[in-house]
Amino acid sequence: MRILSIETSCDETAFAVLNVRGDTNPKFTVEANMIASQIKLHAQYGGVFPMMAKREHAKNSIPLLTQTLKKAGLLKKKKQTLSLRTSTQVLEILAREEGLGEAFITFISSYEKPKVDRLAVTVGPGLEPTLWVGISLAKALSLAWDIPLTPVNHMEGHILSVLTQNKKTFSLNTQMFPALSLLVSGGHTELVLAKAIGKYTILGSTRDDAAGEAFDKVARMLGLPYPGGPEVSRLAHKARTKKYARTCILPRPMLTSKDFDFSFSGLKTAVLYTLRDRKELNQGEKEELCREFENAVVEVLVTKTLKAVEKHTVHSIIVGGGVAANRHLRSELSKQARKQDVSVFFPEKKLATDNALMIAIAGFFQKPKPFTSTMFKANGNLHF
Ligand code: KG4
Ligand code: ZN
Asked: Is residue 279 pLDDT above 90, yes or no?
């Protein structure tokens, strides 16, 4: 089976092609995994504006889809004529996506239907206006090519991104499950018990800001570019190598609470107060503040994850989402997990942030639905 997947839940337009052979012990081959990032555009404004992101997705979709299929060796030029009925339906589906309808018709009428057996698309959680671009495009493709379509939960994608084990060709490592998954991104901070692929229970989540969001907000306070996570982490790392003394102490919110919930908004406010009290910070002080902030976030994440591991018998810890790229989190969690004799799986950096390969993997494990199904509706707050 060959799956073509689409991801547009935030500020990355992404497509992937995944080939899966065999049922009992499926073997996966990544044939293409492409991303058009909008980071540079949003960096000018210090954050993502949904309507601007939506327009970018609509503009970049067809060119990136074309490149993706080309990369996978699936694109053959051939003039096609769409029936009047199909083109009318397609244009209706894409009516709200600026310029996409015309680009779609030109694309579809220029190439042969590719050898793809299934389409998969993110339906949530995420920004609804941007999710709609991917969903509408997926529906239009499903209609025009007559290929079944599967709805995917973006967070399940983040969990399953570790299945690749950073290889182009991979088999399932079922030993990973049951697993405890720590999902940390710009929009989410969740501890999820993954008994098996497709069987998820949320143990706890953030009551306010997500971990990545806190990184982004602190970065903004310090005048660092968007997305803030990598920048704050870079400065924190400098402070660690220079071994600065600890002059500021930030709180570790909910570290000892009995549940598995998180809260990062108070920590962010504590950084704000520190900045207000200290007025001008020199570079060294900025680096030290970043280190203390990163230490606080990581300590809370690691402590709560290991507490959940103690309570639920699991084979492994799976980390997913943009903050999974954080080097301090990676080293601390690995160190602490080793003490509890549980293995930890992180996605490679390219798969930690949003991508379509993880959507194709999740799409493999779920049944397609007719593209007219109500499942194909953007759901910003989609839960497991
Ligand atoms: O999963 P993702 O690409 O998008 C969402 O679904 O939100 O995550 C993006 C988030 C941003 O908040 C970004 O600042 C954060 O992940 N991030 C990091 C690092 N790299 C990305 N946070 C901390 N350290 C990093 N190295
Ligand atoms: Zn994400």
From this structure: no
